[in-house]
Fold these 3 entries.
Entry 1:
Amino acid sequence: MSTVYILMGVAGVGKTTLGKMLAKELSLSFYDADDFHSQLNKNKMKAGTPLDDNDRESWLNSLSIAIKKWGDSNGAVLACSALKEKYRKILSRNDAVKIEWIYLYEDYETIAKRIQQRKLHFFDPLLLKSQFEILEPPTYGITVKVEANPEKSLKEILEKIKRPEIGLIGLGVMGQSLALNIAGKGYPVSVYNRQAGEKEKNIAQLFAKSHAHRFQIPAYDDLKKFILGLETPRNILMMVKAGFAVDAVIEDVLAFLEPGDLIMDGGNSHFKDTERRAEALKSKGIKYLGVGISGGEEGALNGPSIMPGGVESAYNRVKPVLEAISARDKHGEPCCAYIGSGTSGHYVKMVHNGIEYGEMQLIAEFYYFMRFFQQRSPEDISEIFSEWNDSERSYLLGITYHILKKKEANEPIIDKILDVAGQKGTGGWTTSSALELGVSLDTITASVMARNISGLKAQKEKAKDLYKGLNSNSVDISLKNLFAAYKAASIINHSIGFELLRIASKEYKWNLNLSEIARLWTNGCIIRSSFMEELVEIFGSENEDHLLLHPRVIDHLNMRKLQFINTVAEIQKAGCPMQVSSAALNYFLNFIRGNTSANIIQAQRDYFGAHTYERTDKPRRNFFHTNWNIK
Ligand code: 6PG
């Protein structure tokens, strides 16, 4: 199937001149739609009578038949006014034809002058006004303001008719921001959004229209046209809600894809879903990448952190564009790099979110303590977080500083926000994966549970009057100690997240580079921080053991361990919940004790179920059973 290029716009704008030049450049035949008018229409125009829609219908019909014929052979260049959308619909009604719309425009005065200078043309310059009146500029295709110098306009057309290298499906906030980011970096991108009732009506067209002053982004609500309009082999980035919607989109696009095409899932899909999808598509010759993207709306627009996983050759195809749109680390390198095979990209993004859950809850806990057990105002706490952020930069601390400062009708908005946390699943999935791998994920799991317990709002309201006598109104703990405890808990939360990655990498044979993952997380993503910068170096020193055994981490925690233990204990003594901080503390205390209480567990298991146990006075992997009957 070949492309038919249609240069459209009002009479006199330069369709014929530029059309002929373009046809020559592309070695295609040129056609002028005027030649397809009936004699009756030509006479009417000559007499200065504007054509009505009936006059145009037979003309457009014969043109659409010709377009189909050209599309089935070598393609062509056609100059045709095609002023209204309904005319263009007739011209493009044959789905199997690839049409590239080239909308030429110029202001009324310039064109009127040009037409008046024309000789021997049957078009009456007075008709120009009516053409401007009915003109409906397209929101798709490419737009070119015609220059006095046609060579210049031709050059612009040739640059713009490069077909989109990447097609983006799903124009939610992340999809829109990424599309603008891609276009802004000079990569041709087209977008598709389904039509779904009033809620999702003309999303793609409206999006392209509202950014038309900056970018030419072909926008579609017809999936087939969107896919056929892409450069082959095709690269498609899905930005749709994780879960069923991803499967539905894959099923729909598959109808039009060819072997060698690539689908990328940029959402927070469960890594096991990504594995299943990649396997199913492999048998059809379609490549699949699970691409973790972090940074929210702002990151997606200005540079997110990108974690692509899957077949490396598929990644290499889209590497230039993904790197171009990503954030930069402190050395100016892209915060985007191939993570590993299989579903590692989505797995790493999931653990990112797990650490994110832990960090968010930690900040929330310290806020809660200072707000309700030290009676500080949101504004005061905001200033405290700002100071913490000055000495230990963290994106999440920074945004919380802003949140606490924000007022509505002169009142802190935070006081009006209902204390019930939402979640979309990634935190809980991290816990499930850790359970499968036998990894202890204390802080991340505690942060998920803290969100869950916040949902028991009604019961909590009742319970507050049933268990009295615990609340202490002003607990005297210094800011220095609070900060030390926060920092220690945060280090442990990171250690726990990275430990899961280390074990998963071994289990799934991904060969993850933890230093590189930390580097990807130094900018663009939600958990970027100065500690993350430090982790790049810590992992870079080939310490492939638990992070809590690294000399720099040991120094950090040794320096703060007493403040950490005492502060969490004091806070809990006052009756203030500290789910993640105490989980971090318990993890730490368990980790540094050398021995644990697990000998009792083993003995109990052996007592009631003859599950056997290993002995301290015998080599490992030897199992013993005792007859516990004490008579
Ligand atoms: C990011 C965020 C992003 C999203 C979370 C929120 O890295 O940009 O993590 O992916 O905000 O999925 O998840 P919850 O709704 O579960 O808090």
Note: The two ends are 90 Å apart (CA to CA).
Entry 2:
Amino acid sequence: MKFPRLSLTALAATLLALGASGAATAQAYPTRVVNMVVPFTAGGPTDRVARDLAEAMRKTLGQQVIVENAGGAGGTIGVNKVAKAAPDGYTVLLMHIGYATAPSLYRKLPYDPLTDLVPVGGVVEVPMTLIARPNFPAANFKEFLNYVKSNKDKMNFANAGIGAASHLCGLLLMSNIQADFQTVPFKGTADAITALIGGQVDFLCDQTTNTTQQIKGGRVKAYGVTTRNRLPSLPDVPTLNEQGLTNFEVGVWHGMWVPKGTPKAIVDKLSASLQDALKDPTFHRNMTELGAEIMPEARTKPEGFGQYVRSEITRWAPVIKKAGEYAD
Ligand code: ASP
């Protein structure tokens, strides 16, 4: 069978037309709903940031931004889902620090965090809190330590799977206090905190975007925050630092990515919308009330965020290796 031969001019014209239609698509973007994938269950801290952000971004994108929860394997299932999605701007990822710790925790990831997704920008940094079931027999961190150390084999330490922020916090805690506990993984810490309130697990380290209301309502016991200074949103909760855990600071940064190959014009539109969302008064107020802080401006932009993520992947590798003997 003979194929018609395309002249060079016709080929150039076709390519030009394709390029122009790509540019037109990027210009018109978004013409339909944007899917924001959260790699943890609904109602948890990452989901909370995503839902508030989706609402703020809707205002400038002029389209609905729907949150899709794809929990499991410490967030890596959801990240992989976005890595494999069409690079058309209609699937975006909202993930956190786990994006940078997973490469050191998993022998093999189904995606390459450095090349399969491209950064849109950082969003917020959220402190963590060490909390326990409401009837946990310890009045402060010192008593907590004594109790967990002398009941090591009976303790259940919840997390959202290997690669989650709660997992990282747990690793750091266990290596700092030199104790190893049985860990119980959930698909997100929304489920973990429900189990904690119900007394099915003993303790958990989780973002303030999930724990602030529960601590204030007295539904869980709080033993410390992971920041250097106390939080204005939880002034009665001491820092772990002031209670002797001096080498222990964790801030859970969150950010947005899209699949590689997404047209630059679309990344720029998402980035501009993210910038506006970070200045949105409702988003700002909601985040501040929950102890979250907007990331420094340079890190909220694609290039600065990309650099930061790369530096975080490098920074956590030796820390995780050192704490590794306490890994699941
Ligand atoms: N806070 C969880 C974590 O451990 C994730 C979540 O449910 O949002 O990373």
Note: The pocket of aspartic acid is lined by residues 40-41, 44-47, 98, 159-160, 164-166, 188-190, 206-207 (CB under 6 Å).
Entry 3:
Amino acid sequence: MMRLWGRAIVRRRKVLCLWLLLLGFALVTLALSDLLNRDRVHSHQNPVPPRRPLQGIPNDLEVIVDSRDPALELGVDLAPLKSLQEDQLLFVPSMQGTKNPQQRKGTYKVLLPGANKDTRTPAPPTHGEMGKAVQLEEREVESSLVQKYGFNEVVSEKISLHRRLPEARHPECFGEQYSESLPSTSVVICFHDEAWSTLLRTVHSVLDTAPKQYLQEVLLVDDMSQHGHLKSVLSEYVSHLDGVRLIRSTKRLGVGGCRTLGAARAAGEVLVFMDSHCECQKGWLEPLLERVAQDRTRVVSPIMDVIDWQTFQYNATQWPVRGVFDWRLDFYWESKPELQEKDPDSAVRPVQSPVLGGGVVAIDRHFFQSVGAYDPGMLLWGEEQIELSIRVWSCGGSLEVVPCSRVAHLDHHHLPYSFPDDELIQRNKIRVADTWMDAYRKIFYRRDTLAHFIRQSESPNITERLRLKRSLGCRNFHWYLTTVYPQLYIPQDRPALSGELYNVGTGSCADYPRGQGPKGGAMNIAPCSGTGSQHCELNSELEVRWGPMGALCLDAKDERAVLSPCSTHRPTSSRLQWTFIKLSGQLVHQQSQLCLEVLKEGGLPQSSPKEVKTGGLFLRPCTHHPRQQWHFEQLVAPKGA
Ligand code: UDP
Ligand code: MN
């Protein structure tokens, strides 16, 4: 009986526990539903776009790619995300932070590491000092950002991420018809420590201007940036943008390597490599795709307009324009409006270009891979575009600038990053010279003696590139010079008639001050540089050709020695002809029969016009004064590199 009584009590306790459990469950459910309801009400007032979760980032959003992965070269899918390298960045969603990120302007407050470290508040300035202090602080912030980025980031921050550029296309462009079915495109944007505003303006400008049906994706490739804002904040931001993917490299790859990585991960038929500080003009993509679709070996560039690094003002580039390089292997855009043909079609007709700049290039993905991508031996920055250009031309493709496509590129005041190696650019130039220039490379080494000396002590490992060149059956540099770039003057560099023009009387060298530009200006005398920057040559036409392009000639203007554009006619004008008398060292101007002399400041005759009172190189009656004695000093032995 007692046992029965006991069992009844146990059963009742169990029932009680069950009731209590049920009650607890009901309470929790109630609280949760209230919470959810509140959220729903809130989101109704302030709609939130569907978010992709930040933890457990999906593979298509962000992958840490180890570029050493052999799968890359094979184009095989890479291993999924291993770990997300986070930074110490504080990421604070602001009060209005739940809006669509495209409307962002101050949506996120980015607190850079260390920004809030010092909690001591300085003594408040006196009333009058306040305005000045604020102004000073602003200016300091501005100049430190210019230092950091190479452009005025304060101004850039104030400009909308969706600003529209003023129309700069030729009216003829609006009548152009493009094919209905153009190839799909991956826009590959590599960046290393790019500023937030410029990077995002680039991305939005592509999204705002490229037709959806052709834009497969925007592929952001982080070349191991260090700046905090490019880590989780960027991942979060990109996660809201349709059609934008972000991959990260675990190794600093440099421009070419980073682009090759992007290409290996891209899905579009055509690749557009774009710098991380560009703004696209309406309708920029279609004309490029049309040209590539017509011929898959065509590599094309828009007209590159210029964004001013100080004001962010947009400056349209004059047509016709094409890319060229000089004998120091430096790149230039050559804009020659005077060459505009009378033919009305010429305003919309693409022009072939010896090289293209790196800012924006469109290339068929398969052609890019088969022609050898970017040279993996190139270090960080520089020359990769010249290398690609010479290779494309020599190995069966072509390059052109398409005038109805315009993209603006931010021209930096200085590069925003430093290199671990001072001679990095020379090393990249050496690769170009040794792989592609055959015997013509000597002309380069004479004009870049640093490259020459590096080359003497080490050889570049270009075996793979030479093998590629052979297997693709590429043409030689002579073909390239005569067929693609016949305008480039080919120096003769005759022994004893080329090198630095050394003046016996002063122990200095003839010099053309930098910054006077390609149109010419007054010659001067300066310490001999020994770098090849003062290289000139007296050729068989009796011209003294100056500079790495060899397009400027020693000329006389009144009594002054100046540089002028060389004549394209043969025989050349006698005004540009000189005789070098080896025995006396005199350099005699043919037309006037006067001799080249160095005059010190104040050493001029009274009769001289006011503006030539400063010292420099002049034409004077011939004497045997040491200041009229010259010789061409060769810095690189005639055998060359
Ligand atoms: N870049 C990169 N890795 C580097 C150096 C540059 O990804 O090591 C990126 C850079 O952010 C830019 C592009 O490559 O988007 C070209 O570099 P930059 O604009 O500095 O060259 P420039 O236009 O001055 O020739
Ligand atoms: Mn750039």
Note: Residues 190-192, 194, 223, 252, 254-255, 258, 275-276, 358-359, 380-381, 412, 415 surround uridine-5'-diphosphate (ligand 1) (CB under 6 Å).
